[in-house]
Each structure stands twice: as structure tokens, then as C-alpha cells.
Amino acid sequence: MDDALTVLRQEFEAAEGSFLLRLRGADLVWDRAAFSRLEQAMRKACKQYEGHDGLPRWMAEGFYYASHFVAEWTSHPNFPRPEPVQYYEDCLERLRDLADWFFYGWHAYQEPHVWQDL
Predict the structure, then answer these.
(1) Which helix (H) or strand (E) element contains residue 5?
(2) Is pLDDT of 28 > 70?
(3) Its domain of life (predicted)?
(4) Which of 13, 28, 59, 112 is most buried (CB neighbours < 10 A)?
(5) The whole model's pTM is what?
């Protein structure tokens, strides 16, 4: 988990070489390898914090930011989105799903326990 936390800190702080920095930098690059690192680190954090009541503030802010910023920043028609379009759309959905999982403690593809009681 330490490696995932390091990746998340670098991403959420937009460190050199991070997906978020390359996305919003002068090059406007969607780096697939960097996105994959970010996605994997976010997934590990979701598993680690699943069901916890307290979440680290820096991590919560980062999950929120990533799930909103990427879609907003790349929505401009001149942004060079990655091909195929389905890959791009799946990535945006994945970021939203990961944020939901992190904040709610369950992911979009499992039955939420709170609804089972109704």
C-alpha cells in the first residue's frame, strides 16, 4: 500500500511525470501508462479504506479532484482525446466509479449493503 500512497501523493500534487500534470500541462497529453498507474493506486486505496469511517483529507480531496477535473479539462472539443473514444469514455467512468467506491465504501459493481436492508 505504501507504493500506492506514494503514487497517489505524486498524482494528487501533480508532480513531474504524473498523469494529471501531463494532462493539464503545455503538451496536453493523455499518458496511458500514467493513467494506469493512477487507476491502480486509486483502486488499492479503495480496497484499503473500504468500510472505514475516517478518510485522509488529502486523499479525499484528490479522489474528488481527479474524478471531476479530468472530465472537465478534457471536455473542450480541441483537447486531443485518446483513441478509441470508448477507451476515453471508459476511463472517465472508471474515475467516477473509483471516487464513489472510495467515498461510499462499496463499488458500483457490488450490491450496496444499505439497499439490501430495504
Answers:
(1) helix 2-12
(2) yes
(3) Bacteria
(4) 59
(5) 0.85
